[in-house]
Amino acid sequence: MNSCCVSEVRRCRPLLGTFVEVCAWMPASSCNRTEMLNRAVANAFASMERIESLMSVHDPASELSLVNRQAAERPVRVSAETFEVLRRGLDLARESSGAFDFTVAPLLALWGLLPSMLKRRCPGNWQAVRVLRGQRIQFDRPLALDLGGIAKGYAVDRAVEALQAAGVSSGWVNAGGDLRAFGDRPLDVGIRHPRTGQHLPSSLRIENEALATSSPTFSLKRWKGAMVSHLVNPRLGCAMASPIAVTVRAAECWIADALTKAVINSMNVSNASQLERMLDRHQATAQVFSA
Amino acid sequence: MKHVRTAIQWIALPAIAITAPCPAWTATYLSVEQAQQAIFPGVQLVKWELQLTPEQRQAVEKSCGIKVRNPKLAAWKASEGAWFLVDEVIGKHEFITYAVGITADGAVKQIEVMDYRENYGSEVRQSQWRSQFVGKRRGDQFKLDGDIKSISGATLSCRHIMEGVKRLLATYELVLRK
Question: Residue B156 has what pLDDT?
Fold first, then answer.
């Protein structure tokens, strides 16, 4: 494509715990649409900022922090977005028999990977989370939720919707590897070696779909003689520490994001067919790179 | 008849490090003028030539606990007492150039990455750390594992941008606000 007659805006900001890139294009016939593209990209960032302010586990002022502080005592009313992410996460926890579970924050806090205020004495699992009428959340016992395994993908979806609503014909949003492309321009995504972190010569091409990758490589640390990472296996209470990377493709980014955890946490389970069925149900595919 | 496909593909990679040179992943997002327009749209900015004196340098370092590598400050004053600053931090191996808008009451208005030069791109996902700089003020807690967190390949880059913003806020308080 001749770049001189394509309007393109590409931006990057530190957001959602990573560097988020937003790219928006207009076709040749609509040159000089930079103003409109700038507005669209600003809207996309604003929508992700909103999600972060609602669901950040690190921000004591976020809605999620309020839920973590109070939901064991009384039902807490939350925004439509937070309610939606919690509902989807619980559905996926049920469907994966707990391979995806966003109640692992106390363990991550114990290992020093999340703020210590999230430590809990006898934490439960996803089954202790109740979604009630009127957008309210309640815990059956003291829990701490971390939406890090799903909310970033959800934020990418919201950003893509913001771009599309502003009339952008094609583009992509990349939140540190949780990404989604839309429109008629495919995006080539590099893959890195799960042990060395180096780029592999091959890449993945995505078009009108989302991609997410999880790997313990970059959060590995030693804790009391054991290796831990941010990828907790909720059913075993231990972390994935092997040099692997799991990449999931799906139509939307929230499900790609969450399914990477479900796949990683099912890897040592003999029931691979349940996993295959779950991916099929969401029309997703997974690639497991092991070193 | 349902079409059956394999939903999971296993790919074993050689355990040895790949020896081919790994090209740095580099992106240029904004020029200085574009970053100014992005953060202060339509505002006339006036360039200020500023070089921190050794005393000011020391004061900034003491105030925020972060080394001032470059005493030169790329600063533009916005009409209503707000500032536009361009700064560089080291990412993992290379420099990241970014711009920060500071409002008249000393809070971060917006951050834009202008140039990102890294050997480690940002394709590998990370757990959430909080990069909600907007509204941060000097004296707010800036600490990894505290209110801002970084995990993964971009840990260093994230930390350095964070420290850069903290250093610029301290510089604003001690040098620019007067």
Answer: 59
Start-to-end Cα distance in chain B = 76
Percent of chain A predicted with pLDDT > 90: 53
B148, A18 contact by CB (below 8 A):
no
From the number of C-beta atoms within 10 Å of its C-beta (0-12, 13-18, 19+), residue B163 rates as middle
| Residue B110 contacts residue B92 (beta carbons within 8 Å) | no
List of chain A residues whose C-beta atoms are within 8 Å of the C-beta of residue B29: 10-12
Contacts of B10 in chain A (CB under 8 A): 287-288, 290
Select from B87, B127, B142, B161 the residue whose CB has the most chain A CBs within 10 Å, as the one to mutate to test that interface.
Answer: B127
* Lowest-confidence segment of A31-40, A121-130, A173-182 by average pLDDT: A31-40
Q: Are A180 and A172 in contact (CB under 8 A)?
A: yes
Edge to edge, the sheet with strand B83-90 lists B25-28, B108-118, B95-102, B83-90, B72-77, B46-51
- Which residues are A232's β-sheet partners? A239
Question: pLDDT below 50 — which residues of chain B?
Answer: 1-4, 16-24, 120-134, 141-153, 155
Q: Calculate the alpha carbon distances from B68 to A255, B59, B140 in Å.
A: 43, 10, 19
Say yes or no to pLDDT of A74 above 60.
yes
- Smallest Cβ–Cβ distance between A190 and the set B9, B11, B121 belongs to B121
For residue A70 the two structure tokens come to: 């109070």
DSSP state of B144: B
Other residues' Cβ atoms within 10 Å of the Cβ of residue A114: 27
Count Cα neighbours of A219 within 13 Å in the Cβ-side half-sphere: 27
Alpha helix ranges (H) inside chain B:
32-39, 54-64, 155-171
Task: Summarize pLDDT for B50-80 with one digit per residue, the tens.
Answer: 999 999 999 999 999 999 999 999 999 997 7
Is-contact A47 A158, C-beta < 8 A? yes
Mean pLDDT rounded to a whole number for chain A: 88
Q: Which of B98, B123, B155 to substitute to test the interface with A, most A CBs within 10 Å? A: B123
Q: Which residues on adjacent β-strands are paired with residue A171?
A: A24, A182
B13 contacts in chain A (CB < 8 Å): 193-195, 200, 289-291
CB of A143 within 8 A of CB of A129? yes
Confidence of residue A42 (pLDDT cuts 50, 70, 90): very high
